[in-house]
Specification:
Elements lengths: L7 E7 L6 H10 L4 E7 L4 H10 L11 H10 L8 E5 L5 H10 L3 E4 L7 H14 L3 E3 L7 H11 L6 E9 L13 H6 L2 H4 L4 H17 L3 E9 L10 E8 L4 E7 L8 E8 L3 E5 L5 E5 L6 E4 L7 H4 L12 H20 L14 H19 L4 E3 L1
Parallel strand pairs: 1-2, 1-3, 3-4, 4-5, 6-9
Antiparallel strand pairs: 6-10, 7-8, 7-14, 8-9, 10-11, 11-12, 12-13
């Protein structure tokens, strides 16, 4: 059966009762009617998995106690029943072993960010993915916004000239109080080095900043100088980070992230100043892109208009004036992964460089950033190469 004759079948690891991002992935994956969830191991607690499976109306025999059992059991099913890919929505420390298990069992993988627990795991996962030939997607969802894709087009086409200065910020007040001591699951694992890794805010929001700015500019960071801080007593990981950036083609940048910024909600903002123009995009108002050119009136571009590039209009679902946002951008990433998997199933695979979604290489890039930012800060905020 050709893959376009049916929905792709997804299994999920993580995302059980009390989780946040698992529900987001389930909505996003199925938004465009290309995917159906058919199996899962939603928690390390089998009872949580059972309850989650019931609430999602899944076959109880396909709600598994461990991810190993899930991969092995699904691989034994007939080709017209087994999952096509696994979506990983667990804490960071489990990403690598789960991804490795499913890739080696012959399944494609979608993974939440940051990609792995350590840089060494990220390097190994690149080798595993490339050896397997399987599709691996990383959900840096902000790349799925139409106006982010148009911003990339403006720089990639040369209309904005060379990058001179970048200011990227991601400010939240999510961790203003010690939620991890008050039973909030989301804060507990993010502030636990055994689950989050060497960076908290660095991994949670900093990796988004680096992915977003490099996606739009196509100009990689080559060096950074970082200063990380922790303000609340008893915490072992960063809550706030500031960094200076240097780019391959001579531009400079400033990155500032915080999860203790009073009054901020989800303040991701990207400003890029080029030799011929500049852009400003803000995640909390994602349907607008400010474009500046020297000596000319400022322009405000809006989502869904015919003057946008094809990459932007292709991922627009509804007419102008009807806002699209977080779920739709996430869904666009899943659509890219879905298309790549379908092309493999139908025998006409895309090359990884043709993928229009973040890949295992982007995941490696994020882990390199986290590692180098921690290294710089520990050395007294010295410059380090990336």
């Amino acid at each position: 059966m050709k893959s376009w004759k049916r929905k792709l079948r997804m299994g999920m690891v993580g995302g059980g009762q009390g989780a946040f991002i698992g529900g987001v992935h389930r909505i996003a994956a199925t938004l465009d009617q290309q995917v159906e969830l058919v199996a899962g191991c939603f928690s390390r607690d089998p009872e949580n998995t059972r309850i989650t499976g019931e609430q999602l109306y899944l076959d109880p025999t396909r709600c598994y106690r461990t991810h190993e059992e899930m991969a092995q059991s699904e691989a034994r099913l007939p080709a017209d029943r087994r999952i096509d890919f696994a979506s990983i929505v667990t804490p960071n420390n489990l990403h690598f072993p789960i991804a490795k298990t499913f890739l080696e069992a012959g399944f494609h993988v979608v993974c939440d960010k940051p990609m792995t627990y350590t840089l060494a795991e990220a390097e190994e996962l690149v080798r595993i993915v490339e050896k397997s030939g399987k599709v691996f997607g990383l959900t840096h969802n902000y790349t799925g916004h139409p106006l982010v894709r148009h911003a990339r087009h403006l720089f990639r086409s040369g209309q904005m000239g060379t990058v001179r200065k970048v200011i990227v910020e991601y400010l939240q007040d999510f961790l203003m109080v010690p939620h991890e001591k008050l039973g909030q699951k989301q804060a507990a694992w993010r502030m636990d080095p055994a689950q989050a890794g060497i960076g908290a805010a660095l991994g949670d929001v900093g990796s988004h900043c680096v992915n977003l700015l490099e996606y739009v500019t196509q100009d990689p960071i080559v060096a950074l100088c970082a200063d990380k801080s922790t303000f609340l007593p008893g915490r072992m990981l960063d809550e706030d980070v500031n960094a200076l950036l240097r780019f391959k083609h001579g531009g400079k940048g400033v990155l500032t992230i915080s999860q203790v910024a009073t009054g901020e909600e989800n303040g991701l903002r990207l400003r890029i100043y080029g030799s011929q123009g500049a852009i400003l995009w803000a995640q909390e108002n994602p349907n607008y892109l400010e474009v500046y050119r020297y000596g000319k009136p400022r322009e405000t571009l809006t989502r869904g208009q015919g003057y946008l590039c094809t990459e932007a209009t292709d991922c627009t679902r509804i007419p102008t004036g009807h806002p699209e946002g977080y779920f739709e951008a996430f869904a666009t990433v899943y659509c890219g992964v879905t298309e790549a998997i379908r092309r493999q199933i139908d025998g006409s695979p895309l090359r990884p460089e043709e993928y229009d979604f973040p890949t295992v290489r982007d995941g490696l890039r994020g882990m390199q950033f986290i590692s180098k930012a921690v290294e710089s800060s520990k050395q007294g905020s010295t410059w380090v190469t990336l």
